[in-house]
Write a structure and sequence with these properties.
The complex is a heterodimer of chains A (about 110) and B (about 110). By secondary structure, chain A is mostly beta strands. Chain A is built from no helices and twelve strands. In chain B, a hairpin with an 8-residue loop joins β8 and β9. In chain B, the strands form two sheets. In chain B, strands 2, 4, 5, 8, 9 and 10 form a six-stranded mixed β-sheet that branches. Chain B has a four-stranded antiparallel β-sheet with strand order 1-3-7-6, with no helix packed on it. The chains are: A mainly beta (about 110), B mainly beta (about 110).
Chain lengths: ~110, ~110
């Protein structure tokens, strides 16, 4: 079975500081894709960052970066210089070429405090 | 251009009634997904459409759930004889293809079964 685990239900960070959200996954596949999605109160899911498993280099998108540890099946998200607008639920997700369904973790509620 | 739209935004229905939820994907996107998000949970895959291929219905929780996609565009998710456990936010997403392609999500329909 393919599962995604986010062990931090809630986190908070001071504005301008850095925070890391954890995610682990379990799969027997070798080719897959990992994603972090942000869901603000508006409910609109927004893709934050994406990582292809065959790429060793960690993905980076402006203030967002990942630490992808394939052997450990770990995919954490680092948010630098946190902003109030980063307050949202963050979901880690996983998808393979062989399946049509994207598996999501239970989410981490991040609050950025002024 | 326009994003993924869903209607209605909110739906309250009585137990036992049927409901229809609508999704308008981004024009040109061949792939369409339906997900269910229960309170405080991650997203649960329901069904996937890709072009003219037979849909992947592996995530539908019971035979009360069905979905159609007419003309490769608009999709309707139907829940028959609704139960209280069907209460959730139903999210639709579309993409250019699978896996590597970003899924663009709609704002969801919040269904409440009383």
């Amino acid at each position: 079975a393919q599962t995604v685990t986010q062990s931090q239900p809630e986190m908070s960070v001071q504005e301008a500081e850095t925070v890391t959200l954890s995610c682990t996954y379990d799969t027997s596949e070798n080719n897959y894709y990992l994603f972090w999605y942000k869901q603000p109160p508006s409910r609109q899911m927004i893709l934050v960052i994406r990582q292809e498993a065959y790429k060793q280099q960690n993905a980076t998108e402006n203030r967002f970066s990942v630490n992808f540890q394939k052997a450990a099946k770990s995919f954490s998200l680092k948010i630098s210089d946190s902003q109030l607008g980063d307050t949202a639920m963050y979901f880690c997700a996983f998808m393979t070429n062989n399946n049509n369904d994207m598996r999501f973790g239970a989410g981490t509620r991040l609050t950025v405090k002024p | 251009g326009a994003g993924v739209s869903q209607s209605p935004s909110n739906k309250v229905t009585e137990k036992g009634k049927d409901v229809e939820l609508r999704c308008d994907p981004i024009s040109g996107h061949t792939a369409l997904y339906w997900y269910r998000q229960s309170l405080g949970q991650g997203l649960e895959f329901l069904i996937y459409f890709q072009g003219n291929s037979a849909p992947d219905k592996s995530g539908l929780p019971s035979d009360r759930f069905s979905a159609e996609r007419t003309g490769g565009s608009v999709s309707t998710l139907t829940i028959q004889r609704t139960q209280q456990e069907d209460s959730a936010v139903y999210l639709c997403a579309s993409s250019l293809g699978t896996s590597l392609y970003e899924q663009y999500f709609g704002p969801g329909t919040r269904l409440t079964v009383t």
